[in-house]
Write a structure and sequence with these properties.
By secondary structure, the protein is an alpha/beta fold. 40% of the residues lie in helices and 14% in strands. The protein has a domain of 176 residues: Undecaprenyl pyrophosphate synthetase, CATH 3.40.1180.10. The chain has 8 helices and 8 strands. It is globular and about 60 Å long. The protein starts with a helix and ends in a 16-residue tail after the last helix.
């Protein structure tokens, strides 16, 4: 059964990219559509609820993480199918090392299996993989896997898939500040030359647009040290669905909610606007 579902998901990866999002929300509802100019360029997702999904089914937490990996496959493919420019997923935070040894070990094993099973298809689909976080702090096998994945897809020009791994938002900001301080100390940069653009250029996401839409599943409503700089003006959607059950229909609902919002970036509401 698992092999059949996985085979179907892999087959979906090679579908043609539609001009509009057309996904049936339910068997009773017609397909919903969104024009490309109402889509976010950059979507970030906090994939929360794997453990609670497993607990609700009397399964070990590791089963929830495995099911969450299946959900991730389809959301990546949906992002590519629907023309999202950047997708950033929160896979493993610096705080997650404090979880049980068994759970951390299972997550690291899933990471290896994910890259082994998905890298060929992602590369064929022109997806570029970038790891956000302290790669050097990963165990050797995982470090080798992610470094190889980044190197293999570096020249790809399609969906930018950012995987926040061994990542902490405050640590990213400190890292950028230290880099700028070293440049000032070396005489390469004047203190007055440090502006928002200079700071952003030292982040893991340098050269990418800021996050337009942040989605967090499972009903929790916090950032959890995820992309504090990049989400400064992000629209946020908090979905009660546990991550393993977050499918294309749920993703589409979040995109439709985003499309219906008015983004002012601190400016006065335009006359006639709904926001």
């Amino acid at each position: 059964m698992f092999a059949e579902r996985l085979g179907k998901l892999l087959g979906d990866l090679f579908g043609a990219k539609p001009k509009y999002i057309t996904v049936p929300v339910s068997t009773a509802a017609p397909a919903q559509a969104l024009p490309p100019d109402r889509l976010p360029r950059h979507v970030a997702i906090i994939m929360d609820g794997n453990g609670r999904w497993a607990n609700a089914r009397n399964l070990p937490r590791t089963a929830g993480h495995a099911a969450g990996t299946e959900a991730l496959r389809d959301i990546i493919r949906a992002s590519d199918d629907w023309g999202i420019e950047c997708l950033t997923i929160y896979a493993f935070s610096t705080e997650n090392w404090a979880r049980s040894k068994d759970e951390v070990g299972a997550l690291m094993s899933l990471l290896l299996r994910y890259f082994a099973s998905e890298i060929d298809e992602l590369d064929e689909k022109n997806v570029r993989i970038l790891i956000l976080g302290d790669v050097d702090g990963l165990p050797a096998p995982q470090r080798e896997a992610v470094v190889n994945a980044m190197a293999r897809t570096r020249g790809n020009t399609g969906l930018k898939l950012n995987i926040a791994l061994n990542y902490g938002g405050r640590a990213e900001l400190v890292r950028a500040a230290r880099t700028l301080a070293r440049r000032v100390q070396a005489g390469e940069l004047a203190p007055d030359g440090i502006d928002e653009a200079a700071f952003a250029a030292e982040l893991y996401t340098a050269g990418m647009p800021d996050v337009d839409l942040l989605i967090r599943t499972s009903g929790e409503m916090r950032l959890s040290n995820f992309l504090p700089w990049q989400t400064a003006y992000a629209e946020m959607v908090f979905d009660r669905t546990y991550w393993p059950d977050f499918d294309r229909a749920a993703y589409l609902r979040a995109l439709r909610e985003y499309a219906g919002r008015s983004r002012r970036f601190g400016k006065e509401k335009a006359e006639g606007s709904n926001g």
